[in-house]
Design a protein that fits this description.
With 85 residues, the chain is of the alpha+beta class. The chain contains 2 helices and 2 strands. The longest helix is centred in the last third of the chain and has 12 residues.
Length: 85
């Protein structure tokens, strides 16, 4: 793990193939991974740390064991929470 450690939130949500909301829909993934950071600067610091050659090599080797690069996507999103009441 790079200096600074893991993101404060690292969540994996696995697809329930036994309970599809849209039966027959083509699904090209089995898990959604979410990482949360305090702010953009924390994200950029973490990315810089995991991009260091010795760390990046370890990350790539680990990912090669379980990721299909054809179905791997990464996005930055902005969270908006709506509550009732």
């Amino acid at each position: 793990m790079p200096a600074g450690g893991a993101p404060p939130v690292y969540r994996r949500s696995y697809l329930r193939r036994d309970a599809p909301l849209l039966p027959g829909a083509a699904i090209g993934f089995d898990v959604v991974t979410e990482q949360k950071f305090a702010d953009r600067e924390a994200l950029e610091a973490w990315l810089a740390a995991v991009s260091q050659p010795e760390v990046a090599e370890q990350v790539r080797a680990d990912e090669a064991r379980f990721l299909d690069p054809r179905h791997y996507f990464a996005y930055v999103v902005e969270e908006h929470v709506t509550t009732s009441g």
